[in-house]
Amino acid sequence: MKMAIMILEGPYQHQAVDSAYHFVKAAQARGHEIVGLFLYTDGVNNANKFIQPPGERNISQRLDDLGAEGLPIVACTACSKFRGMRPEIKVENVRLSGLGQLANFLQEADRMITFGD
Amino acid sequence: MSNKVAVLMRKAPYGSVYTAEGFRTIMGIAVFEMDISVVFLDDGVYALLKNQQPGKLDMKPLGDGFPMLEEFGVRKFYVHGESLSERGLGVDDLVVPAEVVSGERIAEILAESGKVLPF
Question: pLDDT, tens digit, for every residue of A62-95?
């Protein structure tokens, strides 16, 4: 099955992005295709390359790794502006784009899975 | 592949950004010819109230936007009847002519849509 992912919460405050990461890994391992991952609202903060968690999982590094493996990861441009998530702050394999990209993911996928509150 | 999607409005229109972003998402994807059903339930029904005045919260009234969505081809509005009545509200209190539906009907709408964006 083709699936798209949306994340609505930021790093470390909420389990959303962690669950999304494990969901993507598990789905891919079972042969499903993840067509894209959309970071929306506070979700854009997960792409901050300056995240340095002492002794814990590095959330932005995990996203960067997923992107490097070929998963398209997009952070909402407007949400990023509201939160000061400038292009030079985000990890390399996350790009900024608008809701048109979410529409593309929706059209490409059989199911949309949202991780949020 | 299908262009059908359901947008769920579950939360109060002020106090968090979810409902406002749900509205912005509808606007943003409607121009890409998505077939959108908008479902209001729980505190999300407050988003459709007439005469919202959130100025003291530094917010703009969210309800004003929903009638404009018809211009973008968004015409399918559903509101959970039980959520309305629990809050002492009726269809006359709402800014758009939404269809009042049961929880069972909402489950069908979500299943028919295939893809769901919950806010």
Answer: 999 999 999 999 999 999 999 999 999 999 999 9
Residue in B2, B28, B119 closest to A102 by CB: B28
The CATH number linked to A30 is 3.40.1260.10
Please tell me the distance from the alpha carbon of residue A42 to that of residue B119, in angstroms, as a whole number.
13
Question: What would the pLDDT profile of B10-22 be if each residue is shown by its tens digit?
Answer: 999 999 999 999 9
**The CA-based dihedral angle spanning residues B47, B42, B18, B23, taken in that order and rounded to the nearest 10 degrees:** -40
Q: Please tell me which residue of chain B has the smallest CA distance to A109.
A: B1
Q: For residue A18, which of A48, B59, A10 has the smallest C-alpha distance?
A: A10
Domain ranges of chain B: 4-118
Residue of B nearest to A103 (CA): B29
Mean pLDDT of B29-48: 96
The answer to whether the CB atoms of B28 and A107 lie below 8 A apart is no
Name the superfamily (CATH) of residues B4-118: DsrEFH-like (3.40.1260.10)
d(CA A54, CA A61): 13
Q: Work out how many CB contacts closer than 8 A connect A with B.
A: 58
**CB-nearest partner of B117 from A6, A107, A108:** A6
ipTM for the assembly? 0.89
